[in-house]
Design brief:
Length: about 130
Amino acid sequence: MLVGGIPAEGDVVATVTNLRSSKGQVLACMTAQPTAFPGCDDDPSARTIIVPAHARVELDFGAVPRGRYAISIVHDENGNGKLDKRLMMPREGYGFSNDAPVRMGPPSFSNAAFDVTESQERLSIRMRYMF
């Protein structure tokens, strides 16, 4: 839908819950490209955010065009800019929009996807830890 010749937009804000510490930082990315999820590396239009870890973290992705998106987050406790793994298992916290289930790997885009309309989309994303 166009509003005055411009694609309609909605604001996306996500609150991160269940961080186990305030060490390091929270890395987040939001993409509309199913093939780029969850890392967003192959999507030049992906929105990324890096914020210091706190008991409560709010991620403001700003105004985005209407569409279907998915968010992935990492609690980068050692501040090295990536999700550390041990034997292919995440050593740091992670989470996904819609609290998408994790089974033998990250969830699919469709399980994490949500729709953005002209209004504000507020999400809550739970951080999970394996170790």
